[in-house]
Amino acid sequence: MVWDIFREAFDRFEPSSVIDILAIAVLIYLALLLLRGTVAMTLLRGVVILVVAVVILAEVLELTVLQFVLRNFFPALLIAIPIVFQPEIRRFLERLGRTGLWRWPGRPGYQQTVEVVAETVMELARRRHGALIVLERETGLEDYIETGVKLDALLSRELLEGIFFPNSPLHDGAVVLRGDRVVAAGCTLPLSHRGEGHGLRHRAALGTAEATDAVCLVVSEETGQVSVAVNGRMMSGLDERQLRAVLRSLLLPAETVAPFPGLPAR
């Protein structure tokens, strides 16, 4: 039965079929690239193994009912895939919507912000005051801003140090920056399922970096270590020079960034 299907497919093969095959291959590649390193990848692997085993079993033993179920399985699969992989599909569409090709009108600039943030973060690290700072880029962070206290204040080192001073009312949440403005403080961020062995601040930073294109800075309260999470990855143990270089490369236009030796790989 399976060989008859393959034979019929080869009989219908035309030059345009090459384009179809390449398009499907690209879609599969993008899907695997999206799922790489996530829990969904393990789930997908298990589903593929199960389906292949059932198909082989049905063909070898000629199980008529099971073959019928497999032939009518795909409509149900089209419904199940969006339900099971909803977070990954949403993240893919959100990333697809990012241009990254030009600066949109009104998109925040970070020339002065980089210097203030870098100085403040290193001072907080020296004092071992835990901190979580999120710098908005193309993806809007209004959903997270609504969970905190709106400030809409001009960014300054004194303001950030006051927010993250131990036992202050807002020090446990995240601060969201938009350009040179502190939009909100005490914000709640989504936690990543990865990052075992890290605290809540690191998991929140990584979770935000997985869901958006924001740049998240974390200061560890226990070790004073500085980390940056972006694009679903985290760089840890940064010193002041490395931190400035990372922030400049991520937030400033390419023509304003000077080459920096020793920049951590992203």
Please give a structural write-up.
This protein has 266 residues and is an alpha+beta fold. The chain has 2 domains: 2-96, no CATH class; 111-256, 3-Layer(aba) Sandwich (YojJ-like (1), CATH 3.40.1700. It has helices at residues 2-11, 15-35, 39-61, 64-71, 74-84, 86-96, 111-127, 142-145, 157-163, 200-211, 240-251, and strands spanning 131-135, 149-154, 174-178, 181-187, 215-219, 226-230, 233-236. Strands 2-4-3-1-5-6-7 form a 7-stranded mixed β-sheet, sandwiched between helices. A hairpin with a 2-residue loop joins β6 and β7 (233-236). α3 packs across α4 (64-71), α7 crosses α9 (157-163) and α7 packs antiparallel against α11. The longest helix is centred in the first third of the chain and has 23 residues, at 39-61. It is elongated, with a radius of gyration of 24 Å. It starts with a helix and ends in a 15-residue tail after the last helix. The relative contact order is 0.10. Mean pLDDT is 79; it is low at 99-107 and 255-266.
